[in-house]
TrEMBL record, chain A:
Keywords: Periplasm, Signal, Transport
Lineage: unclassified sequences, metagenomes, ecological metagenomes
Annotated Pfam families: SBP_bac_8 (PF13416)
Gene3D superfamilies: Periplasmic binding protein-like II
A molecular function GO annotation: polyamine binding
Source organism (scientific name): freshwater metagenome
GO BP field: polyamine transport
Location(s), subcellular: Periplasm
Protein name: Unannotated protein
Major place of residence: periplasm
UniProtKB/TrEMBL annotation, chain B:
tRNA processing in keyword set: no
Matching Gene3D superfamilies: MetI-like
InterPro entries linked to this entry: Bact_Polyamine_Transport, MetI-like, MetI-like_sf
Name the record gives this protein: Unannotated protein
Species of origin: freshwater metagenome
Annotated Pfam families: BPD_transp_1
Transmembrane segments: 12-34, 70-89, 96-114, 134-157, 178-201, 236-258
GO CC term, one of those recorded: plasma membrane
Family of the protein in this entry: Belongs to the binding-protein-dependent transport system permease family. CysTW subfamily.
GO terms for biological process, alphabetical: transmembrane transport
SUPFAM superfamilies in UniProt: MetI-like
Domain ABC transmembrane type-1: 64-255
UniProtKB/TrEMBL annotation, chain C:
Main location: membrane
Entry keywords, A to Z: Cell membrane, Membrane, Transmembrane, Transmembrane helix, Transport
One Pfam family of this chain: BPD_transp_1
Residue intervals of the ABC transmembrane type-1 domain: 80-296
Species of origin: freshwater metagenome
Keyword Plastid attached: no
Family membership noted in the UniProt record: Belongs to the binding-protein-dependent transport system permease family. CysTW subfamily.
Transmembrane segments: 21-44, 84-105, 117-139, 175-196, 217-241, 278-300
CDD domains for this protein: TM_PBP2 (cd06261)
GO biological process: transmembrane transport
Keyword Phosphoprotein attributed: no
Protein name as catalogued: Unannotated protein
InterPro entries: MetI-like, MetI-like_sf
Membrane topology (UniProt): Multi-pass membrane protein
Length: 397, 275, 315
C-alpha cells in the first residue's frame, strides 16, 4: 500500500504521540477512499464488514475477567519462536507458512479466523489483511510492555499508530556461502549474481518469496525494489528468466542448515537463517570459518514481522497476554537468541550480552540501516508474483 | 535344470533388491529418530531425547490428533458409502453400472491437484461450515477412499453366492435382518481391508488437504510439509516411527481377522491392495 | 466375475430386485457434490480472470482463453513437457522393475513364501507417504551415510568420480525420478501380480507342451492374458504421478519442478485461481493426449502381433 519514504520525527509524550499517530492514520486511511475507508470504519467501530470476501464472527469472545487461559494457535514462520519460551508462557500450537503470500491466501480464503488467534505477517502485508477485515484492532492497554519497544520500531508507515500490529522482530536479507566453492568474496548483489552464474551455478538457492527474488535484480542495479514502473519490471523479468533462472538449484526460504550440510554452495538468506546454519555447524563441532555471510549491498531489504491478532480470535486476551510476555526484555532476549533477529526492545543489544554470532543479529549503525529499505505491497504485486512463477517454471524446464 | 534355477534365483534376488529399496528410506527415517542433533538430515550421535520431546510439542501432537480424527471419521463415512455402492454394483447390475464405475475410475485417476484446486474454489463459494474445522478435510478424504472401498466391496460381493441372501429372504428375514446377519458378515473382509486402506489414504493425504484445510487446522503430514523448508527435528521422525508401528499392528490385526475368516495370505494381500 | 441374480419371482425377494441403484445414490450425490462440481469449476475458472486481493475467487465476467495463452506461451510449456517426460519415464521404470517381481510372485514361489514376500512389499506402502518421501532427503544427503559410504575406500564398483565428491542428487530431477519410482512402485507391482496370478497355469503349460519356449510363452500367452491388468497398472501409476507435486516439492528443488507444483503455486502464492485452473486443465489435456497416443500404439502393436506372430516386446 502506501509507503512513507521520509519520516518526520517530533518530540512529544508517548500518549500524545499515540493519539497523533492514530488521528494521522485515520485521516490517511480516509483519504485513500474506497476499500480503505471501509477498513477505517471497521477500525473505528470494531465490527466486521471490510472490503474482503470473508465473513467474520462479530466481536470475538472476551475471556472472563481475571486469569487468561494460556492457550494460543499461532500462524507463523518456521524456526521463529523459542520452544522453551513458548512453553514457559503456556500452550501454543504453531502452524508454519513460508511466504506472506501463502499466509494471506490461507487467511483470506480460510473462513475468517476460525482457527488461528495470531498471525505474524511482514509489515507491508498488514494493510492487506486489515482491509480484508481479518485483523483485530489491538488494545494496547492490555499490553503494558508495548512501551519497551524502541520508538524506531513502532508507528511504521504501513501501520501508523500500531493499530493492528506490534513488532515481533526485524531483520535483513543477504547471502550465505561455502567459501570452498565460492572462492571470490561476495560484497554486493552483483557479486552474488556473478557467483551464481559461475562458481556456484546450479548450487545456488534463492528465497521462496516473490519480492525477494526480484529484489536481487533491483538491488544489484540500483533500482528501488518497490518500483511500479513497467520497464523496470520488464527488465527484471528478462534478466531473471533468461540469465539467472537456469543457475538456481532451489527456491528455499530456510537454506541455512542445508547449505552447511553440503546441499548448496550459495544462498540468498534472511540473515538469522544463516546464523542458524552456523550455530548448527558449531553444535556439530565443525569448522565455522568455511562459511561466509553478508548483508545485501549496496541496497537490501529491511523487513519487520509483526504480531497481529486475528478478528474473532478465540483466545484474544491470551494473545495480548502473550505479546506482553514476549515484550518483557528478559523473554525477548531468549527469543532473540533463538531466531537471531533484533526484537527492537530498548537496550536489547546490551541485554543480549555475549551471544553467538552477535554481529549477525545487530546491525543498527546509521550507515548500515541507510542501505536497507522496507518492501511494499503495491500495484506491482501481481507482476512480481508472475515473474517469480515464470522464473520457477524456467528453472525447472 | 541349472538354467531354470538361475532364472529363479535372479528373480528372487531382484525381488529382494526391490524390497530393500522399498525399505531404505523408512529405515533411515526410523534411525534418525534416535539422532542427537536437532535436524534429521545430519547424524551426530545416538540419543533418545527426541522421543521424550515428541509429546511436549503441542503443534506436533495437535496435528496428529487432527489427522487421527479426520482419518477415523472419513473412514467411517467411506465405509458406509462404499459398502452400499459396492453392494448395489454387484447385486443390481444394469445400464447404470457402466456410468457409475466410469465415475469411480475417473475419481481414482484424476490427479489430486485438480480435485484439490476445484474443491477449494467450490468450498470458498459455499463458505460457512465448508471453511471451518475438520469438515472440509473429512469431506475431500472420503471421495477417493469411498471409491476404493466401493471397488473392493464390489469385487468381494461379486464372488459370493447371491442365493444366500435370497435364502434368507425366503426364510422370511426382513431386509435389515438379512443385511445384518447374512450380507454384512459375508462382506466383512472387504469392509475391513477397505477400511484399512481408507484410513491409510486419509493419513497419507497432503495435496487436497493443503488446498481445503481451513486456517488453523493442520494434519500431521501437512504439518511436516510446512516444516519441510526448514529444520525437521528428530521428534518428527519419532512420531513417524510410532505411526509405522501402529499401522503395522493394525494391518497385522486385520490380516489375522481375515485369516480367521478363512482367507489365504494371497487373498488378504489382494484385498489389501485393492485388487 | 459378475454374479447374476436368480430372476425367479418370490414375494419376499421383492426388495432384492426393486430399486436398482438405490444403495448407490448416496455415493452418487457425494461424488457429484465433491468431485464433479469441483472439477467442472476448475474448467470454468480457467476461462476467468483473477480478482485483485481476493484469493480463491475468479472473475467470470468475460470468459476467454487468455489464461491458456499465458500458460502455453511461457516457460510453462517446457515444464509441462518435462513433467510428461518424467512421468512417462517413471511409469516405464516402474513397469520394468515390477514385472520380474510380479512374475516371481505369481509363478515362482510357494503359498507360504508368497504371503511373506507380499507382506514385505506391502509394509512400506502403509508407511506415511509424505514422510517416506521426505526420508529420501536423509538417504541422499551429500553429507549423509550413503554419500560418505560411496566416497569411502570400501566401495570399488563405482568410478573415481563418484568417490571424489559428495553425492549431488538432491534437488535435481534424478531425485524426483527415484522417489517417484519408489512411491508408485507398489501401485504397479500389485495390479501386475494380480493380473499374472489370474493367468491359468494350465494355459501356460499347454503352451510349453506345444513346444513354445519360456520367452515365447510369456510373450504370446501370459502377456496378452495379463494385458488388461498391465494397462490398469500403467494408468494407475502414470496419471497420479503426472499430477504429483509433493515429491517434486520435497526433493526436486528448482530443477526437478513438476507442473503440479505450479498449480499449487498459482493458488497459494499468486492467489490466482484462474491461472492455476488453466494449468490444471492443461495438465489433464496433456495426460489424455499421452494416454491417447499410448493407446493407439498399443492397439497398433497388438494388431502387428496378431498378424505376424513373430513377436517383439510391444508396450
Amino acid at each position: 500500500m502506501t509507503r512513507q519514504s521520509d519520516t518526520t520525527r517530533i518530540l512529544i509524550s508517548k500518549q500524545a504521540a499515540q493519539r497523533l499517530a492514530d488521528s494521522i492514520s485515520r485521516r490517511r486511511f480516509l483519504a485513500l477512499g474506497g476499500g480503505v475507508a471501509a477498513a477505517a470504519a471497521l477500525a473505528a467501530c470494531g465490527s466486521s464488514g471490510g472490503g474482503g470476501s470473508t465473513s467474520t464472527s462479530p466481536g470475538g469472545t472476551t475471556a472472563p475477567g481475571g486469569a487468561v487461559d494460556k492457550k494460543l494457535n499461532l500462524y507463523t514462520w518456521a524456526e521463529y519462536d523459542d520452544p522453551d519460551l513458548l512453553k514457559a508462557w503456556g500452550d501454543i500450537s504453531l502452524t508454519i507458512f513460508d511466504s506472506n503470500e501463502q499466509a494471506v491466501q490461507k487467511l483470506v480464503t480460510g473462513g475468517g479466523s476460525s482457527g488461528f488467534d495470531m498471525v505474524v505477517p511482514t509489515g507491508p502485508y498488514v494493510p492487506q489483511l486489515a482491509k480484508a477485515g481479518l485483523l483485530e484492532e489491538i488494545d494496547k492497554t492490555k499490553i503494558p510492555n508495548f512501551s519497551n519497544l524502541d520508538s524506531r520500531y513502532t508507528n511504521q508507515p504501513w501501520d501508523l499508530g500500531n493499530k493492528y500490529s506490534v513488532c515481533k522482530n526485524w531483520g535483513t536479507t543477504g547471502w550465505f556461502y561455502d567459501s570452498t566453492v565460492v572462492k571470490t568474496e561476495i560484497k554486493t548483489w552483483s557479486d552474488f549474481i556473478k557467483a551464481a552464474q559461475t562458481e556456484a551455478s546450479g548450487q545456488t538457492t534463492v528465497l521462496d518469496a516473490p519480492p525477494d527474488l526480484c529484489g536481487i535484480y533491483f538491488w544489484a542495479n540500483g533500482i528501488d525494489w518497490t518500483t511500479e514502473k513497467t520497464e523496470d519490471l520488464d527488465a527484471c523479468e528478462k534478466f531473471l528468466v533468461n540469465d539467472f533462472a537456469s543457475h538456481i538449484k532451489a527456491f528455499n526460504s530456510y537454506p541455512g542448515v542445508d547449505l552447511t550440510s553440503g546441499s548448496f554452495a550459495l544462498s540468498q538468506v534472511f540473515i538469522g537463517d544463516a546464523r542458524a546454519g552456523l550455530l548448527g555447524v558449531q553444535e556439530a563441532g565443525e569448522d565455522v570459518s568455511r562459511y561466509k555471510w553478508g548483508i545485501g549491498a549496496p541496497m537490501t531489504e529491511l523487513w519487520m514481522d509483526n504480531w497481529c491478532v486475528l478478528k474473532g480470535a478465540k483466545n484474544r486476551d491470551a494473545a495480548y497476554d502473550f505479546i506482553n510476555f514476549v515484550l518483557e526484555p528478559a523473554n525477548s532476549v531468549k527469543d532473540l537468541n533463538y531466531h537471531g533477529y533484533n526484537t527492537g526492545i530498548v537496550g536489547i543489544e546490551d541485554l543480549a550480552g555475549d551471544i553467538d554470532f552477535k554481529d549477525m543479529v545487530f546491525y543498527t549503525s546509521a550507515a548500515q540501516l541507510a542501505t536497507m529499505q522496507s518492501g511494499a505491497v503495491n500495484s506491482a504485486q501481481d507482476r512480481i508474483v508472475k515473474i517469480y512463477s515464470n522464473v520457477k517454471a524456467k528453472a525447472g524446464g | 535344470m541349472k538354467k531354470l534355477l538361475s532364472v529363479h534365483t535372479s528373480m528372487a534376488l531382484w525381488t529382494a533388491a526391490v524390497i530393500a529399496f522399498l525399505f531404505t528410506p523408512i529405515v533411515f527415517l526410523m534411525a534418525m529418530s534416535f539422532n542427537d542433533f536437532k535436524s534429521i538430515f545430519k547424524w551426530t550421535g545416538f540419543s533418545t531425547r527426541w522421543w521424550a520431546h515428541m509429546l511436549d510439542n503441542t503443534s506436533l501432537t495437535g496435528s496428529v490428533r487432527v489427522s487421527l480424527e479426520v482419518a477415523l471419521i472419513s473412514t467411517a463415512l467411506a465405509l458406509v458409502l462404499g459398502t452400499f455402492a459396492g453392494l448395489a454394483l454387484a447385486r443390481r447390475p444394469g445400464r447404470w453400472t457402466t456410468g457409475f464405475i466410469g465415475l469411480i475410475l475417473l475419481i481414482l485417476v484424476t490427479p489430486e491437484i485438480v480435485d484439490g484446486a476445484g474443491q477449494l474454489s467450490w468450498f470458498v463459494r459455499l463458505g460457512g461450515p465448508f471453511r471451518e474445522g475438520l469438515m472440509p478435510i473429512i469431506l475431500v478424504h472420503t471421495v477417493f477412499s469411498s471409491a476404493v472401498v466401493t471397488l473392493i466391496v464390489r469385487a468381494r460381493v461379486a464372488g459370493l453366492d447371491a442365493r444366500l441372501e435370497e435364502a434368507a429372504a425366503d426364510l422370511f428375514a426382513t431386509p435389515s435382518r438379512a443385511f445384518l446377519q447374512i450380507t454384512l458378515p459375508l462382506v466383512m473382509p472387504a469392509v475391513l481391508s477397505g477400511g484399512m486402506l481408507a484410513f491409510t489414504l486419509s493419513l497419507d493425504n497432503v495435496v487436497s488437504t493443503s488446498f481445503v484445510s481451513p486456517a488453523g487446522v493442520t494434519t500431521f503430514p501437512n504439518y511436516v510439509f510446512g516444516l519441510s523448508g526448514g529444520i525437521i527435528r528428530p521428534e518428527v521422525a519419532a512420531m513417524a516411527t510410532l505411526f509405522i508401528a501402529a499401522t503395522l499392528l493394525a494391518v497385522g490385526v486385520v490380516a489375522l481377522v481375515l485369516r480367521r475368516g478363512g482367507q489365504t495370505g494371497t487373498e488378504i494381500a489382494a484385498t489389501f491392495t485393492g485388487n | 466375475m459378475t454374479a447374476t441374480i436368480d430372476a425367479r419371482p418370490s414375494r419376499r425377494r421383492g426388495w432384492l430386485r426393486a430399486p436398482k441403484f438405490l444403495l448407490a445414490i448416496p455415493s452418487f450425490i457425494w461424488y457429484v457434490f465433491l468431485f464433479v462440481i469441483p472439477v467442472a469449476l476448475v474448467v470454468v475458472n480457467s476461462f476467468g480472470r483473477k480478482i485483485a486481493n481476493v484469493p480463491g475467487k475468479v472473475d467470470l465476467g468475460s470468459p476467454n482463453f487468455d489464461r491458456y495463452h499465458e500458460v502455453l506461451s511461457g516457460s510453462f510449456k517446457t515444464l509441462l513437457k518435462q513433467t510428461m517426460f518424467t512421468s512417462l519415464l517413471g511409469t516405464v521404470l516402474c513397469l520394468i522393475i515390477s514385472l520380474p517381481v510380479a512374475y516371481f510372485l505369481a509363478f515362482k514361489v510357494g503359498p507360504k513364501a508368497k504371503t511373506a514376500v507380499l507382506a514385505l512389499l506391502m509394509v512400506p506402502f502403509f508407511a506415511n507417504f509424505l514422510l517416506r518421501t521426505l526420508a529420501w532427503r536423509i538417504v541422499l544427503q551429500p553429507s549423509g551415510f550413503v554419500s560418505n559410504f560411496l566416497q569411502s575406500g570400501h566401495w570399488f564398483t563405482f568410478g573415481q568420480a563418484l568417490r571424489s565428491s559428495p553425492l549431488q542428487i538432491l534437488d535435481t530431477r534424478s531425485a524426483v525420478q527415484i522417489a517417484i519410482v519408489y512411491n508408485y512402485l507398489p501401485l504397479m507391482i500389485f495390479p501386475l501380480w494380480v493380473a499374472l496370478d489370474r493367468v491359468e497355469l494350465h494355459l501356460r503349460e499347454a503352451s510349453k507342451d506345444l513346444g513354445a519356449n519360456r520367452v515365447r510363452t510369456f510373450l504370446q500367452v501370459t502377456l496378452p492374458l495379463a494385458g488388461p491388468g498391465i494397462v490398469a497398472g500403467l494408468i494407475l501409476v502414470f496419471v497420479p504421478l503426472s499430477g504429483d507435486y509433493v515429491t517434486a516439492a520435497l526433493l526436486g528443488g528448482a530443477k526437478g519442478n513438476m507442473i503440479g507444483a505450479e498449480v499449487a503455486n498459482q493458488y497459494f502464492k499468486a492467489q490466482d485461481a484462474a491461472s492455476g485452473s488453466a494449468i490444471a486443465v492443461s495438465l489433464i489435456i496433456s495426460i489424455l493426449l499421452v494416454l491417447g497416443v499410448l493407446a493407439a500404439c498399443f492397439l497398433f502393436g497388438s494388431k502387428l502381433v496378431k498378424r505376424s506372430r513373430s513377436v517383439k516386446v510391444v508396450l
